[in-house]
User: What shape does this take?
Amino acid sequence: MTLDRRNFIKLVGGASGLALAGCASQGPAVSAGSAAELMPKGTARRVVVVGGGYGGTIAAKYIRMLDPSIEVVLVERNKEFISCPFSNFYIAGLMNDMSSLTIRYDKLAANHGIKMVYAEVTAIDPAAKKVVTTQGTLAYDRLIVSPGIDFRTEEIEGYDAKTPEIFPHAWKAGPQSTLLRNQLQSMKDGGTVIISMPLTPYRCPPGPYERSCLIAHYLKKHKPKSKLILLDANPDVVSKKPLFTKAWSTYYKDNFQYIGGKKVTKVDVGAKLVSIEGIEDFKGDVINLIPAQRAGDIAVKAGLVGDDKKWCPVDAVSFQSTKHKDIHVIGDATALPSDGPPMPKSGYSANSQAKFCAQNVVNLMNGKEPVEFSGINVCYSAISDHESVSIASVFKVENGKIKSPATAISPADFSQAKMEHAYGESWLRNILTEMST
Ligand SMILES: Cc1cc2nc3c(=O)[nH]c(=O)nc-3n(C[C@H](O)[C@H](O)[C@H](O)COP(=O)(O)OP(=O)(O)OC[C@H]3O[C@@H](n4cnc5c(N)ncnc54)[C@H](O)[C@@H]3O)c2cc1C
Assistant: This one.
C-alpha cells in the first residue's frame, strides 16, 4: 500500500461527497426519490456495514476497536436479530421462546460509537461510493456487505410467495421458525413430516441433519406413531456423516428415514406434495422445504455475485470483492477461492472472517499491507435434547486460496456428547454477547 493509494482513497472519498450532492438524477443504481442524504459524511473516513448479523456486527465492532478515527455506520433492516444457531431447539419444542436467541444493537452501538441505521438497503452505487437505503443515501470510503442468504425459489416449479406460509423453510430464524414449530405441534400423531434440503453450498452444512435429529426426538417423545423423512438433494450426507448416521440408527430408527439424491423440483401446496424431477412424489402433513440458496438479494442486485449469479467472489486475504472496488463481502454470501473443502457457511466462519476483514479494511485505509487470513470454524450439532457433536477446522491462505490444514470431529461413540452439548450452549452465549456488546 503506497502513499499514492492513500491519496487516491481521499480523492475518491471527496469525489463521492461531490457526487452525492448532485446525485439525485444520476446513476441507474440510485432512485431519485430516495436520494436524500441520510447522514452527511464529514471529514472522518467512513465505513458502512450492511447487515447486522453474525458477520456485520463483528466487522463494525472491530473496525472501531482497531481505529476509532474511522466512523462506522451499521445498516440493518430489523431492530432485533434472531440467531439461526439453536433455532432448531425452539422448532423442536425444546425452548419456550426465542428470547435467548435474540439480540439488540443498543449496547454494541453505545459501547463502540457505531452509528446504527435501521433501514433496508435497496441499492449500492459502487461508482459514487454510496448505499441507498429506505431512509436515504449514505456515502462511504469502504463498504462491508454481510447480508446472509436468500433463496433460489425460481428453481422450484409451483413455488410462489405463499409457499413458505404452507411449507416453511425456517432457514432464517423468526416467524418461519414459529410457523414450523406450530405445524409440528398441531400435527396428529401418526403424521408424516418431510424435511427437504438443497444441494451444497447452503447456509450451515450440518443444520438440516441437526434439525432432523431434533424433530425426530420431538416425534419420538410426543407423537410416537409419526415418522420423519429427510430428503437430501445431495447424493449422500455432506457433514459429520458417521455421527449423524449413528444418531439416526440408534436413537430414531423407528421413526426416521434418510433418502439421499432427492432434489425437490416441484411443489403442490394444496395436495401437500413435493415432487422429485417429476417422477416421484412425497406427501407430508408437515413439509419443511429448504430451497437452494444464494447470496442475500442486495448482493445480487449490486452485481457483487460472480458468473454463477449465486455467490460473491472475494479475495481470500482481504475479503475485497473481485467485482467492485472498495467493497468487501463476508459471511454466507461469499465465494472464497478454496483449495480443498471450502470454509462452511456458518456463524462461526462469519465471525472469523469479520475480524480479519476489519483488520484489513483498517490496514488498507491506513496505507498498510493486509494481513493473511487464518480462521477457525467449529460447528456444534445437537443429536438429541442433551447431546451434541462437533466438527472443528482451521483455515489459512496459501497461494491466494483458503486451505484447511486440520479438521477434527467428535468421537463416534458419543463419549463426549453431553460435554459438547454444554460447550455448544456456552459458544452461543459467548458469540451473541460478543455481537451485542
Ligand atoms: C437452522 C440453522 C442452524 C444454524 N446453526 C449454526 C451453528 O450452530 N453454528 C454456526 O456457526 N452457524 C450456524 N448456522 C449458520 C449461521 O446462521 C449463518 O452462517 C450466519 O448467520 C451467517 O452470518 P451472515 O452475517 O452472513 O448473515 P446473517 O447472520 O443472516 O446476517 C445478515 C443480516 O443482514 C441483514 N440484511 C440483509 N439484507 C439487508 C438489506 N438489504 N438491508 C438491511 N439489512 C439487510 C439481515 O436482516 C441480517 O440481520 C445455522 C443456520 C441455520 C439456518
Q: What stands out?
A: The pocket of flavin-adenine dinucleotide is lined by residues 50-56, 75-78, 81, 84-85, 87-88, 120-121, 146-148, 171, 203-204, 207, 296, 298, 331-333, 345-348, 350, 379-380 (CB under 6 Å). The domain at 153-291 is CATH 3.50.50.60 (FAD/NAD(P)-binding domain). Residues 127 and 152 are 28 Å apart (CA to CA).
